[in-house]
Amino acid sequence: MEGGQEPQESLRGLNDRLRGFLEHVAQLQRENHALQERLVAFGQRSGQQDHEWTMKERAVVQLREQISRLLIENAELALNTENTRSRVTCLQSRCEVEKTLRLHLEQRVSDLMEKKTDMDMANNLLEKQLHTFREELLLLEEEQERELFLQQQQADGLLAAQAAAEEEDGRGMELRRPRPSPRPAPGLRPAPPTRIRKDTAVPNGDATPQVSQGDEALREARAELTEVRKRWHSLQVEVESLHALERSLQSSLRHTQHHYSQQLQDLSHSVRGLEAELEDVRDGLAAQRQQHGQLLNTKMRLEREIATYRRLLEHEEGRFFSADGQPRRLKPWRGSTPLLQQNGMCNGSVEDGDPPALIEKPAKQGATLRRQGSLVILTEPISSREGEICTVKTQEILDGQVLRESAEGHGRVETEKIDKVIKQWEGSFFKGNPKLRKKSVSLRFDLHMAVADEGCAQTKQDSLPDVEVRLVMKRSRSIPTITQ
Fold first, then answer.
1. Where are the domains of the chain?
2. Alpha-carbon distance 299 to 67, whole Å?
3. More confident residue, 143 or 345
4. Band (70; pLDDT cuts 50, 70, 90)
5. What is the pTM of this model?
């Protein structure tokens, strides 16, 4: 019996606990309806602030559109700059090639000039040799004429002596025909008559061989003269061809110099125009960079103001309730109290008369329960280990089920450590949710950066300024159907 009564008592205790839990749930629903009515009334009273919030959002949307347009224009300008640089590089390469060709042509012209000088020297040498050959030929002709004249005189003397001897003997009464005198060669002047020396011996039997030797020497001299004339004519033809080649090379050199000078002038004009365009592009980029920095600073200031308004609204919303969830009287807000730091930014919603639960730091306060419509929003502030980024995790719960989770971090980070901090923060988000899978939920990761110091444009190039970072990661699930 005792064994059968214990399960009944445990069931009875469970029923009592279930009844108490249902009563507690009914009480929470009544409180939730009351809070909804108060929130509706509060929303009606704060309609003007909502309108101002809408205007701020419109301004932020416009600023984002302007930033996107400026980024697109900046990309187009960068593309145009790259195209201009590529064209300048192509023109420079062409100019280098033309300079190389010009140097090659100048070297070739110098070689041809040296060849011309050598040919002139060879021509002068050949002319000198030809002149000496002519003088030698004239001397040979004079000597030959003298020898012929001497041989003729000797032959006449011999004939006269023979005739005289025959007349004395009575023989040889025949008439002699006059022997024609030898004519000089065409183109040669006649040799001057030479007087016969008295002491010259008259040879008798050696006259005929001397005449034949003189004829052979004359023929050899004439053949040598003909060969020399042929060589002289060939050299003259070669010299004329070299002169013509020199004139053609000089004309081509002048034409090439004129052509390349015109091309260099055109290239210099185009390079000057491209340099002017590049300077304009650089000025435009600098102006756009400055304007972009100003817009980023304005955007960050607007985000700070929006975050401040959001915290003020949340604090005014939380002032309806006490620390234990019971409604209490709304107290007026006083802005002369000292400010607290929340998520790296000032919180101006804390008063002197607020309870210690609201004045304590977020790390000691723990989780905060807030109502929004029919949802329960659980906010849990978490500070990072290194103190670089302060993280706040938020959960939206409906009927005990998590609909949306998000994490938002604020902090100031060095520019070189942005990637490392983002990876650590994302890893900590997934580490805090072991059941979370990247493929099973919808994640959204936003990164908002702005330079912490507005005067960062004046900083040195080797020391990059710190960057204020706002990291947002959200995951959402489909809202389950409410069973009746």
1. 46-165+212-319, 359-484
2. 10
3. 143
4. very high
5. 0.24
